[in-house]
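Figure 2 data, in text form.
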Amino acid sequence: MSVSSPVRSYLRRHRSALPTVAFFCTCGGLGSERVFDQMTRECGREPVARVVLTERDLAMSATPVAIARFAVQIRAVLAHVPSSEPAARATAGAG
């Protein structure tokens, strides 16, 4: 029900280099909103997409649909990011 220490440290250390963020959370069922709020505060920006994967989602095989929807949201945002921004360059170079 709280963001992990390594994630918190990463967001603090790299916040100025993160022009665009998207969050995911895996959990037993509760606490994702609090975690997303903490991550938003640590990086200083709202996520363009977010997804929560719970134990129940895994049991119901809802995970692939949720991940696909998350990826579509991220792609839509990155398609409109000017190529001068680091996130766009990193994405273009990864393919």
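Caption note: The helical segments are 5-14, 32-43, 55-59, 63-78, 86-94.
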